[in-house]
Amino acid sequence: MELRARTEGVGRMTLATMPEYDSTRLERVGSHAVVIGASMAGLCAARVLTDGFEEVTIVERDSLPDVPAPRRGVPQAQQPHVLWEAGRATLEHLFPGYSAAVLEAGGVKVDGQTEFNNYSNGDFLANGDRSFAIYSATRPVYEQIVRERVVALGRIRLRSECQFTGYLLDDTETTVEGIEIRTEDSDSEQVRADLVVDATGRTSRTPALLEYHGYQPPALDEVQIDAAYSTTFIQRPADDHRAFGALAEAPRTRGGVVAPVEENRWLVSLHGVHGDHPPTDYDDFVDFAASVPATEIRELLEEHPPVDGEIHHYPFAANRRYHYERLSRFPEGLVVVGDAVASFNPIYGQGMSVAALEAVLLHDVLATGGRVDAGLRFFDRTMELVDIAWTMAVGADFGFPETRGQKPRGTTFFNWYLNRLLRTAHSDGALTDAFVQVLMLERPPTTLLRPSVVWRVLKPSGGVRQALHRQVEGTVRR
Ligand SMILES: Cc1cc2nc3c(=O)[nH]c(=O)nc-3n(C[C@H](O)[C@H](O)[C@H](O)COP(=O)(O)OP(=O)(O)OC[C@H]3O[C@@H](n4cnc5c(N)ncnc54)[C@H](O)[C@@H]3O)c2cc1C
């Protein structure tokens, strides 16, 4: 009871409690919808909007490649992108055959039980009994497949090299009726729509545009972590599917991740927080890897040649979350999704999964109440999901005393409990299973407070038990 009370602020919306995606539930709610941004959140939103709108237009400022390739508008694409089960299962619902397509594109099916090695609190977590798979690939592969499937749906017009510049509101400034864009051929063009979805990521201009149109902008939560990622690729034997994760955790500011990806490569990524940034030179990179506790990461770098020796660097200053759900006034005809609402320290790799789950919630919001008040109803529905990802990411960040920002309620207690759980999971695979399901957004963090889990976490360890026993014996003898 006490444990639950201390973490009551943490949401419960995950894959386990998500409404089932059924395309037929959404009847026609409008004739034209516009999505701004053709990355993961925008593409997933566009997919569900085709169920309720005659036509959907996606507006994207980049020119879009025909093959999986990094692009300017998604600068994080060179960095590791793990697709957790909640995201994979949701993408599979939205785009049947998605997981198989990842493998066809060269992605690797990692046996999560035996090939995914997770280091935390001083050792690797024990293998659990639950078997699960991780479909591992580079970020451009995940996005390319979604983009191809969205385009194949028909009824979607994908307009690349179009820059969104502003919203068109009605005379009373209460309803968004479309957007303004700039293309190579025109200074400005108006695109009318019954619903506009902002999926422009961290650089979203919606807060500023709301203010411009006389609305209160959403409150911004920023949690400063001053992190950076450096990533390279090394050659991998085709049948070696091992993956490693040894994330920075207080007081250790450095961490690393290794993931098998397409073209028989391992993606090796190192990170550091609070200014302890990984280098951009290959030799220094290998040295930095030696300071990450899972020695396997350095060994892999020494034993397997680099693909091209290039290091891709990405600074990540702060977690950012706009509290749209706290607004009481918001224009009709507008919804904001994905990183445009919240972008978390990617250390826990949740952004793509949150984007996919949000699309299912957007579908549900439209299916249950049509377009009326869709924005505020959507923010209300997604709040718990965003809460979970946010709480986990910034919770880990607040393990470091240097972290600045608003600490969610219950963080200190939850960190203490989670660290104890992870230490116990070095020898108790049932706890590894419980933790991984939370990590993968399959189940809410509150499941870690079930009596069966709490008992395993809090029961005295062998050493403590013996010490207690000795103390009791001593007391009795005296
Ligand atoms: C270093 C790093 C590592 C990450 N690792 C993981 C991971 O392991 N797992 C995971 O699930 N997530 C990870 N993420 C998060 C993930 O990348 C995002 O959550 C995911 O891409 C969803 O973002 P989005 O679609 O909302 O926005 P974005 O991916 O940022 O895309 C925004 C899109 O909008 C377009 N755009 C922007 N402005 C305009 C405009 N004015 N007009 C037209 N188009 C515009 C951009 O070109 C882009 O295509 C990571 C993020 C970072 C930074």
From TrEMBL:
Residues 33-368 form the FAD-binding domain. GO terms for molecular function: FAD binding. InterPro entries: FAD-bd, FAD/NAD-bd_sf. This is 2-polyprenyl-6-methoxyphenol hydroxylase. The lineage of its organism: Archaea, Methanobacteriati, Methanobacteriota, Stenosarchaea group, Halobacteria.
